Structure formats: C-alpha cells, structure tokens
Amino acid sequence: MSQRKPYPSDVTDEQWALIGPFLDAWRARRVSVAGRHGEQDLREIVNAILYQNRTGCQWAYLPHDLPQKPVTYYYFAAWRDDGTDAAIHDLLRCQAREKAGRREDPSAVAVDTQSIKAANHVPAATTGKDAGKRVPGRKRGLAVDALGLIIAVVITAASVTDNAIGIRLLDKVAEHAPTVTHAWVDAGFKQDFAVHGAVLGIDIEVVKRSDTLPGFVPVKKRWIVEQTLGTLMLHRRLVREYEIRPESSVSRTLWASMATMVRRLTGTSTRTWRIQ
Fold it and tell me: Which residues form the Insertion element IS402-like domain (predicted)?
C-alpha cells in the first residue's frame, strides 16, 4: 500500500491478511493476452470500495489518494460478476463462526426485509413502491445465522412481497447452507413461504411481536436479523439505493458484511461517523 494518511475504513495489516490471499489467488488466475497479471494494488482497491461503502460518496468524490472510478469499478464489477466477493464473504463467515465457538455451517436462520428509498437515477424498471410502508425504491432481503452473519441476500423492487423475497432467500440458503433446517420470520411471511420451506426441508417458525409490553422490546430470535439490518445502515452507501443494477446492491451488502467480519476476527473497530 502506498504511503498516505489512512482512512478509518482502511483495512489493517491483520485484516488484509484475511482477505489478501484470496484476491492474490484471483489475480494469479487472470492473465492478460500480454501475459501480465495486473499491476494495481488490490489492497487499495478494497480500501476504495470500503471507503465509498462507509461514506456513501459518489464515484467522482473518491479521494485523490485512493484509486479512482475506472480502476475501482473495474475490480468491483469483476468480483461481483464472477462471485469472488461472495466466495470471500462465505469463507470469512465460516472463520467468524469458528472463532465464536460455532460449527462452520449454521442450522437456523432469521429472515426479514428492509425497504430502501431509491435515488432518482435508479431505473424505474427495477424499483417499485412498498404498499405497506409506502417506501418507493427497492427491498433488501436478508437471511442471517444466530450470530447475525449474512447467509443470503436478495435485492428486489420494493413492490415485491415479503413472501416472494423469502422464497428466493430460502433457495439461496438451501444452496449455500444446506445444513439449515429452521427459519424464524415475522407474520409478513405467509403460507406459500412455509410450504416452500417444507419442500426444502426447512421448518418455518413465525415469531410474533408482543402487543402487551410497552416501548421497544426485542423480539426473540428475530431481533438478530433486525440488528444486522440496522448495522448495515452505518454504511451510508446502503442507506439509500444508489446502484443501477440490483446485483451491485447485493455486492455492496456483502462488502459491508465483510468489513464487520474482519473486525470481529481481528478484534478491531472502525470509528463511527457519529459525533462522539
């Protein structure tokens, strides 16, 4: 990494030791026609992606001492399209689970959705309006394990029902974590979702919110996915839907999750943008 003043979102040496080998192996497999492997500092590319995720800045506003849009977007899109970001994310999740004393593969997930307003340049064909929450934009669906680590992400128009999103999430869970046999959800997920879960061998448990206790009360089992959705909001790029392609939103979510996991694995933290 070039000598410059670090940003709070930069990966540390310890954190890069977790991510770097995978990206070095990725580059080793990609040889140009001229026989070159590329000369860009991949650590700085990751730092640029994490900086933009954390601050929410536009491409043109990336600091001059970080790689600029043409090169950063090239790698961001390449890792998104060939599944490198998802592969690294899943490997980090296995390590984080092992460090917490869990088995690599989860047995249960909590599922929920979050409606996000879209910026005005996001294509209308990929957005809609959440009729219940009256939010125009997209929906982010998550399935997380008991530690709040992401197992599956689905991005759709906000007009898509929780049921439809949940079915897509269950398919991804069954593909990437076939050990899962139980899922906790809220009452927004209906019979079709439960039937699909049964077909996949996943028992669906609806955990209802209590109406008898005053104030905010964390809902048993479901609170963990709500906490994860809230933590994602610390990454300003995810507070509003800016991505043209839903696939880019999935990748942004995975990068935010990776930033959290490498901090867990190395026992470090990132300064919040809130005033102390």
Answer: 11-89
